[in-house]
């Protein structure tokens, strides 16, 4: 009996050990299964993403092929048009070179004109005294010489007649004008926005600032012609009234700046065209 009991106990122990081993193997298998399942799912997702990228690249490649085909067609058409119109590339290059040469010539002419204007301006400013320079402004703007003179140094009070004080200054300006005979001269009168005194104006046939500015410009033109012998065909008189201000008329200083006469010296148009000669003929 004792032996049978030992045998049963031993057998029971073997079965228990075997049962434990089988359970551990099962758990390991289940873990491996879950891991394989997860890897399988990840692989499926990566494969789907790869297929999407391949489809996108194939679509881009197809678009590039279409673009290339259109460009090739356009190039072929351009070459066909060039051949049909018998375009001579060498002739075209010659025309471009000729145009570039003409542009360089224009630049040289402009440089020459600017240089002449600067010499004219320097000669005039050197001839004016310090007192005169306080009331005479000389500038070169866009290839044109502007000499601006205050009205109180040119005209008698409330008048368009030249005063004695202006004679010396106008004589210096006249000398410059005579030295540069290839230049035209525009005399331009300007006023502030204060209406003319009706009582005084009626005695001088001045209706408004238009009349006053034009008469003042005309007085300077005739003074240059009669006193200094400037050719009248080079002279032009014009009035701009109150409509060309350079400062605000809200202050007395601004009004004073606007009451001015400008002597504008410009190259004669025909002389300028002679300088640049004719434009290249179209071929």
Nutshell version of this structure?
This protein has 9 helices and 5 strands. With 283 residues, it is α+β, with helices and mostly antiparallel strands. Residues 278-283 have low confidence and may be disordered.
How many helices does DSSP assign? 9
Q: What kind of sheet is the major sheet? A: 5 strands, mixed
The SSE order reads: HHHEEHHEHHEHEH
- Major beta sheet, strand line-up: 1-2-5-3-4
CATH architecture of the largest domain: 2-Layer Sandwich
Poorly predicted regions: 278-283
Domain OmpA-like: 142-269
Coiled coil: 26-81
Signal peptide: 1-23
Keywords: Coiled coil, Membrane, Signal
Fold and architecture overview:
Pfam families: OmpA. This is OmpA family protein. Keywords: Coiled coil, Membrane, Signal. 65% of the residues lie in helices and 12% in strands. By secondary structure, it is α+β, with helices and mostly antiparallel strands. The C terminus is likely disordered. The chain has a 5-stranded mixed β-sheet. The chain folds into 2 domains: 87 residues; 168 residues, OmpA-like domain (60s Ribosomal Protein L30, Chain: A, 2-Layer Sandwich), CATH 3.30.1330.60. The chain is elongated. It is built from 9 helices and 5 strands; from the N terminus they run H-H-H-E-E-H-H-E-H-H-E-H-E-H.
């Amino acid at each position: 009996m004792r032996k049978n009991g030992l045998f049963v106990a031993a057998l029971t122990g073997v079965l228990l050990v075997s049962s434990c081993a089988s359970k551990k193997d099962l758990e390991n298998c289940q873990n491996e299964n879950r891991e394989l399942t997860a890897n399988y799912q990840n692989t499926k997702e990566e494969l789907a993403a790869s297929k999407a990228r391949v489809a996108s690249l194939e679509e881009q490649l197809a678009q590039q092929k279409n673009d290339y085909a259109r460009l090739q067609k356009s190039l072929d058409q351009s070459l066909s048009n060039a051949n049909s119109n018998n375009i001579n590339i060498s002739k075209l290059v010659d025309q471009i070179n000729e145009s570039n040469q003409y542009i360089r010539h224009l630049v040289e002419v402009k440089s020459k004109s600017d240089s002449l204007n600067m010499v004219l301006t320097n000669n005039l400013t050197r001839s004016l005294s310090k007192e005169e320079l306080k009331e005479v402004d000389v500038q070169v703007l866009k290839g044109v010489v502007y000499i601006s003179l205050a009205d109180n140094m040119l005209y008698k009070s409330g008048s368009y007649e030249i005063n004695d004080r202006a004679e010396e200054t106008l004589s210096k300006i006249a000398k410059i004008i005579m030295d540069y005979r290839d230049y035209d001269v525009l005399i331009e009168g300007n006023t502030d926005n204060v209406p003319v005194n009706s009582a005084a104006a009626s005695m001088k046939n001045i209706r408004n600032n238009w009349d006053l500015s034009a008469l003042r410009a005309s007085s300077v033109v005739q003074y240059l012609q009669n006193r200094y012998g400037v050719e009248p065909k080079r002279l032009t008189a014009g009035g701009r009234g109150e409509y060309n201000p350079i400062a605000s008329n809200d202050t007395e200083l601004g009004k004073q700046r606007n009451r001015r006469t400008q002597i504008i010296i410009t190259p004669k148009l025909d002389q300028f065209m002679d300088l640049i000669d004719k434009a290249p003929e179209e071929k």
